[in-house]
Amino acid sequence: MKIRRISALAATVAAGALVLSACTPPGDEGTDGDGGGNAGIDEGTSINIGWNQPFYEYNSNSATGNATANAIVLYLMNSSFNYYDKDLNLVTDESFGTYEKVSDDPLTVTYTINDDVTWSDGTPVDAADMLLTWAATSGHMNTVEAEEDEEGNVTNQDEVDAGVFFNNTSAGLALVEETPEISEDGQSITLVYTKPFADWEVNFGVGVPAHVVASHALDIEDAQEAKDALIAAVNDRDAAALSPISQFWNTGFQFGNALPDDESLYLSSGAYLLEEYVNEQYVTLVANPDYTGDHAPTVERVTIRYNEDPMAQVQALENGEVDVISPQSTADVLASLEALGDGYNIITQDEGTYEHVDVMFDNGGPFDPATYGGDEATALAVRQAFLKLIPRQDIIDRLIVSLNPEAEIRNSYTSIPGSPNYDVVSAVNGMAEQFPGATDLDAATALIEEAGVETPIDVRFLYGASNVRRQQEYQLIAESAGQNGLFNVIDGGDDNWGTLLEDSSGYDASLFGWQSTSTAVSESDANYRTGGLNNFGGYSNAEVDALFDELQVETDTTRQGEILAEVETHLVDDAFGVTIFQFPGVTANNTEVEGIDPISISPTIFWNFWEWSTTATEEASS
Can you give the pTM of this predicted structure? Predict the structure, then answer.
């Protein structure tokens, strides 16, 4: 799946240059590093990392929690069956558990969690947790769907509250229609697919703790009794029990302004524990003394400090407030980093994130057919005209080339430049012709005149307000779209833009980035499928849905590329939106920290945290 790179991608963001130093985390409280699997901890060591969007939800599988900002924190906290290494090879972590493809026909996979793996409250991590992941994301437990009006408001809330509604469906797990079977010892679960699924190996894992969800939803204190009740509810498809379970799964792990008093809402099964959370300022994680896996860290504390202003992050690095930064860079940022001189490492490379503009199809705005009495052709003409005026080449020339002289327009919704499918897809999807990088004012004007729509057309434009590069992109887009008086682009910049994406009633077009979480060929499914988790604009095309159905079960790589090309041709023809550029990645750290070696997909710089080391101590970095 793709996740919103909260500016990297999604949710509340702290503004202002003082955030990184506004409050200092605690110094020496917490674990002493003795015992457990973390005997190699260097006591008193800490790393402070500058990031551009705050952690805000523990459940990263929910519709609201799907964001890089959450994923990176949870990667430090919770173990999983596999991860991507430096070369993007998928590596299994057998210190957590194993999985085995038992059969190809039907596709059958058994997952087993080691019996010494526990949540940080001492409760075993087991098949109940995996069963909850399937129940919550397969869609097969749902008895009702949320219905929305043209402004994005849920119109059947009472029905949703009374029924069973988990707010995210995985296209892959939807192919597992029968309830998975749990082994007698409770450590294994077996999934049987109704069809082959090309990306099965990155399709499943442990999400939020089953005993915590059931305990809160069903008012059961004992952890094992809570798990047993959840298993029974799923096996029996007991709507009366599943209704509160789904409600808590959807919203129960959303963080507010402070660390919850209830510690069960942020349990760990991995290398680090969440120790402190200050909303929009920082989170601090401390090494888990009970972790026994292969990824035990040596650094005792990791603090992630938030500021969306890249130059403020550079200043914080220079001042010693942070040790590592990976901001959305500009030429000024790179020049400032290079000017820091000795004592700092700078890594530049392309990231797996790409910038794009999407338009809304179902919010009663200028791109919605309902605005024109259901006239699809008029709405399409307005969408096409607007997208023809996105100055893609100008944005790259002004903001990206100085960081990457080889930067080019990205002309694919689904494939990264340089990947095997990119040339095939971009050659036939029609994006470069339909939405040229240099813009086409004459064509845009003709479309609006032919459609007979009164101008200027108001377009509410959502983006990260404190993100300097996006501020500049917005200005270029607003000026270009305003030519000939065609569009009046209204500044909807907001530091909470990520959480606002779910409600399209407040905006008509958006600018943000998608970051890949895997190399799966079907990961873009959720962006463009009708009702998909990341399909915020209400786009719906039955032919696209059918093509993704085919892609899920297609194992021939040549045909996979052909399917993606067909999908993208529809997206271009329907004027879904446009892609702009691949992110130029810049990571910098002081030389006291070693082991920073970013990869292009989530979790980026965090993927090898167990290889980090530092000579810095908490007293030195406070």
Answer: 0.74
